[in-house]
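Your task:
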Amino acid sequence: MAAAMPGPMTPRACWPLLLACPLLALAGALSHHVALALLALALFVTLAMLPALERRQPRPWLAWVGLQAALALVAWLGFAGLLLEAVPVAVNAVLAWLFARTVSRPRPLIACCIVAVEGEARLREPGVARYARRLTVFWAALLAANALLLAWLLACVPQVGVLARLGLDSAWHGDARWATTWLEVGGYALPAMLFVLEYGYRRWRWRHLQHPGLAEMLLRLAAQWPRLLRDRGVPE
């Protein structure tokens, strides 16, 4: 008989995790406390795998336990500093994959978010569905590019980069302070800033329609997060 898996998370249990993940990651980067970064990564893995975990099948839960154990092992082996600096790379890469995997679907991720926040009728407004698909492509490309940039900086920055730690020439000739700053905050600041700007643009472009406030929109998205990441991605 299969072991009983934990039940599905409620929306109220989900949205605090969504809020805590970037806050912990940013706090870990700024304070250089590895425990905060490790906890942020553990939460991020949980959120990314949440739709599969809610199916209550053993395989996703075994994969989740394995990934959490791998994170703990990396920290225990003395690579905690590298783990801390790799958090924004992982966050941007996983988010890029979440957007990219829905681009070819009849309803991409941004369209599902619009339905979750503003209802099915909003998606039928002229130009909204096309805008949602293009925005999904934009987010996938932007986050992937930022992940690649962060990975390159992580490898090449003098003194703190992976190549420098291995005693190899980093071939870096730019401002190391800029690179270090972007490694610490760029992985979170750029997506957050563009998210707010896009929200303002959307309100202006469809200003003849009513829109929820920014806080209300975030809460609704958080409540629907597991459903948005399921295969069909359509809130029930």
About this structure: The mean pLDDT is 77. The chain has one domain: 11-228.
